[in-house]
Design goal:
GO biological process, one term: amino acid biosynthetic process
CATH architecture of the largest domain: Alpha-Beta Barrel
InterPro entries: Aminotrans_IV, Aminotrans_IV_CS, Aminotransferase-like, BCAT-like_C, BCAT-like_N, Class-IV_PLP-Dep_Aminotrnsfr
Protein name: 4-amino-4-deoxychorismate lyase
Number of helices: 6
Radius of gyration: 18 Å
Keywords: Lyase, Pyridoxal phosphate
Strand content: 25-35%
Distance between the termini: 31 Å
CATH topology of the largest domain: D-amino Acid Aminotransferase, Chain A, domain 2
CATH class of the largest domain: Alpha Beta
Structural class: alpha+beta
Shape: globular
Family: Belongs to the class-IV pyridoxal-phosphate-dependent aminotransferase family.
Helix content: 10-25%
CATH superfamily of the largest domain: D-amino Acid Aminotransferase, subunit A, domain 2
């Protein structure tokens, strides 16, 4: 693999997408590429990738189930693959979340794009893992819930779904969009005291799909029938 040194390498001026590949097919490929192109246009990076190019790459791969990462900068387009870390996730166990002491800056354009300046997310998640948690959650500078290091959050009260609005400083995830496409969701600014009022919680991203959350740092949630319904129905969206 040849990498040309450019601002993406020197200053993190690049963007990426991570796509779930299942049975040789890139799941939600068009949605990922639309988001990628939007970020490339925003950062004035003159690159473009088509669905046909992704399909051509996948046709050369012996493996049929993996995570495909596409990294793009001014002079580079890289295709990287790794095992999907959620393939062996115990769905019934429920995941545990903790809070980061690092705040999301909702006034920064960087939080709304999947950029190669991503290590803060990974570092905070690593700290969470050391504390025996599965994922870490960020608040913004106003004390509002934003997002997980690699995920979006949804909460349930009765049959009503809630999620923080993008303006709280979060990446608009592909699976977040799918949940909002298939179910009525209210975008709500969520404060610390609100967490006690919800019945249930789950995470989303393109690799994990939907994962039930059983704990958010000492606050415990049920696995309700609504969540079981969403977990069962997500396979039909692909």
């Amino acid at each position: 693999m040849k990498i040309i040194v450019d601002d993406g390498f020197l200053f993190g001026a690049g963007v990426f997408e991570t796509i779930k590949v299942e049975d040789g097919r890139a799941i939600f490929c068009e949605e990922h590429l639309r988001r990628l192109q939007k970020s490339l246009d925003f950062f004035d990076i003159s690159q473009k990738i088509s669905v046909k190019e992704i399909q051509a790459y996948l046709a050369t791969q012996k493996e049929k189930n993996f995570a495909l990462k596409i990294v793009v900068s001014a002079r580079n387009i890289l295709y990287l693959k790794r095992e999907n870390p959620y393939l062996h996730q115990e769905k019934d166990r429920g995941v545990r979340l903790c809070f980061s002491k690092v705040l999301r800056n909702s006034s920064s354009a960087m939080v709304y794009h999947k950029t190669t300046q991503y290590y803060e997310n990974l570092l905070e998640k690593k700290k969470a893992k050391q504390r025996q948690y599965d994922e870490v959650v960020f608040w913004n500078e106003r004390g509002e819930l934003a997002e997980g290091a690699v995920s979006n959050l949804f909460f349930l009260k009765g049959d009503q779904l809630y999620t923080p609005p993008v303006s709280c400083g979060l990446l608009p995830g592909i699976m977040r969009g799918k949940i909002m496409e298939y179910y009525p969701v209210e975008e709500k600014r969520i404060l610390p005291e609100d967490l006690l009022d919800f019945d249930a919680c789950f995470l989303t991203n393109s690799l994990m799909g939907v994962l039930w959350v059983r704990e958010v740092e000492g606050i415990f949630y049920q696995k309700t029938k609504k969540i079981e319904k969403i977990l069962a129905e997500q396979e039909a969206w692909k």
